[in-house]
Amino acid sequence: MRRISVRTEPASHRLHRTSARRGALAGVNASLERLALHAARWSSSSLGFAFALGVLLVWLACGPFLGYSDTWQLVINTGTTIVTFLMVFLIQRSQSKDALAIQLKLDELVAAMSEASNELVGAEDLSEEDLDALHRHYKELSERARRTAKKPVKSS
Fold first, then answer.
1. 81 compared with 131, residue with greater pLDDT
2. Which of 26, 66, 95, 105 fits a disulfide with 22 by CB distance 3.0 to 4.6 angstroms?
3. pLDDT score, position 73
4. How far apart are CA 93 and CA 89, in angstroms?
């Protein structure tokens, strides 16, 4: 395989340079990032689940007193719609950040290994067609290795 040269600069240096380029919205972005982090941690905790269950139980308990009216139903429908809308973005943000962090760690490992091919560093930026071609290539390599491993060793 062809080797692609990559920088061997530590990841911490790259992160520092990126942080310095943020510009005027750095404070707002940092605040939103902290808010999203705390919201994601809280909503996935036992306390978050207990809170959601408590809200649901209070809503159910209010039903008989409000005559199970349209307004009573509208309250829970509106609330769950808003929470769902916000959670979609929160979950997407968390998954994207996690995937990027994992990809960066893998890229760092591949770049650090002298005998590894650096061809796949940055593979997440390839088109689906290119990724499919790479997948077929590595699948063929895997099948070839399995066939070679299954052949009996000839003794002389």
1. 81
2. 26
3. 95
4. 6
